[in-house]
Write a structure and sequence with these properties.
This protein is of the alpha/beta class. The chain is built from ten helices and 14 strands. It binds threonylcarbamoyladenylate and magnesium ion (MG).
C-alpha cells in the first residue's frame, strides 16, 4: 500500500483529521502522528498505529498561543507566561487537563501536555482542522523519532491507510530533537524531558530555577532505553577516543558533529537510522558539551546506548 507524500496539501490533511484519520505532520522538532485530540476513536488509532502502550500520554498541539486559555483554562500564571514567551516553539507544558480532552489522550492522567509547534505547515493544518491535534512522534514505540517524511514512511507506511491518512512532507525538521517538557502543575516547575529549548533559557526567561524530574519515570522519554536504533551505540568524550575505539571494533562507524551542536541535533536521528540502513554494527558517538542543545543530544545518545530490554 502506498501513502502519498503531499507537499503543501494542507487542506486535505485537515479534512483527514476532521474525519478521524491520522496525519503525519512536520514540526520544528520531529514529525508527529496527528489525530483529533477531542476524538477518542482517533486517539485510540494513533496508539495502535504506533504500537504504544495506552498509559503513555500524547502531546496535544495547538495552532496559536492564544488557544491556551480556551483549552487549558486552569493553566497557572507561570504556564501562561512561558507559553507567551516560547510558543510557537519546542516547549511542551504539562497543565491541568480540562474535560474538553478525553482522558485517553493523557494516558488517563488529570494533566495534559500542550504545545504550539513552530512550523507553518503544522499550524496551518491545525487551524484548518479546527481542533487541537494529539501528536506523538511518528515512529513505532521505542524507536528513533522521524525527522523527514521518508523516515515516517519507513516506520509507519505499511500501517497507514491510503484512504484515511495523510503524510505531509515539510522537508527535514529544523531542530531535530523533541520538545522540552516542563511540568507546570508542580512547584517549582520540573523539567520532565530536556529538548529543543534548554532549561537555562527557560530559567533565564522566568527568572527562576527549575527542578529536574524526580520520582518514577514520568514521561516515556525518561525510560532508560528509548530512541534506540538496532545497532549498538557506544559513547565517548573525544574524537581521538572515537578513532581508538573504532580501530578495534569491526563494522563500527563514528559520529562526531560536536563542532556544530545545532547540526548535531538536526542530523542525529537521521544518522542513527542511516547506521542501521548501512548495516553498521556499532555507532561510536562523541558526546557534545553539556550546554544548551548539548543536553538534549547527550540525553538521546545516552538512551540510545542504554542496555535494551530483552
Ligand atoms: O517535539 C515533540 O514533543 C514531538 C513533536 C511531534 O511535537 N512529540 C513527541 O511526542 O515527542 P511523544 O509522544 O513521542 O512524547 C511525548 C512525551 C512522552 O514522554 C509523554 O510521556 C510526555 O510527553 N507527556 C505527555 N503528556 C504528559 C503528561 N500529562 N504528564 C507527563 N508526561 C507527559
Ligand atoms: Mg516519541
Amino acid at each position: 500500500m502506498t501513502v502519498r507524500l503531499i507537499r503543501g496539501e494542507v487542506e486535505r490533511a485537515a479534512a483527514a483529521i476532521r474525519a478521524g484519520g491520522a496525519v503525519a505532520m512536520p514540526t520544528e522538532t520531529v514529525y508527529g502522528l496527528a489525530a483529533d485530540a477531542t476524538n477518542p476513536d482517533a486517539i485510540n488509532r494513533v496508539f495502535a498505529l504506533k504500537d504504544r502502550p495506552t498509559d503513555h500520554p500524547l502531546i496535544v498541539h495547538l495552532a496559536d498561543p492564544e488557544d491556551l486559555d480556551r483549552w487549558a483554562p486552569a493553566a497557572s500564571d507561570l504556564a501562561r507566561r512561558l507559553a507567551q514567551l516560547v510558543w510557537p516553539g519546542p516547549l511542551t507544558l504539562i497543565v491541568p487537563r480540562s474535560d474538553r480532552f478525553p482522558a485517553s489522550v493523557a494516558g488517563g492522567r488529570d494533566s495534559v501536555g500542550l504545545r504550539v509547534p513552530a512550523h507553518p505547515m503544522a499550524r496551518e493544518m491545525i487551524r484548518l482542522a479546527g481542533v487541537p491535534v494529539a501528536a506523538p512522534s511518528a515512529n513505532r514505540f521505542g524507536r528513533v523519532s522521524p525527522t523527514t517524511a521518508q523516515h515516517v514512511l519507513d516506520d509507519l507506511g505499511e500501517f497507514l491507510d491510503d484512504e484515511r491518512d495523510v503524510v505531509l512532507d515539510g522537508g527535514p525538521c529544523p531542530v531535530g530533537v523533541e520538545s522540552t517538557i516542563v511540568d507546570t502543575t508542580v512547584e517549582p516547575l520540573q523539567i520532565l524531558r530536556v529538548g529543543g529549548v534548554s532549561s537555562a533559557e527557560i530559567s533565564a526567561l522566568l527568572g527562576t530555577e527549575l527542578a529536574d524530574a524526580h520520582g518514577p519515570a514520568r514521561a516515556s522519554g525518561m525510560l532508560p532505553s528509548h530512541y534506540a536504533p538496532a545497532c549498538q551505540v557506544r559513547l565517548v568524550d573525544s574524537h581521538d577516543d572515537a578513532l581508538a575505539l573504532k580501530a578495534g571494533t569491526p563494522g563500527a562507524r563514528t559520529l562526531d558533529l560536536t563542532h556544530d551542536v545545532a547540526r548535531y541535533a538536526r542530523e542525529l536521528y537521521g544518522e542513527l537510522r542511516r547506521a542501521d540502513a548501512d548495516g553498521v554494527t556499532t555507532l561510536i558517538a562523541v558526546l557534545p558539551e553539556a550546554v544548551g542543545l548539548g543536553h538534549a543530544i547527550r540525553d538521546r545518545l545516552t538512551k540510545a546506548a542504554a542496555p535494551r530490554p530483552a
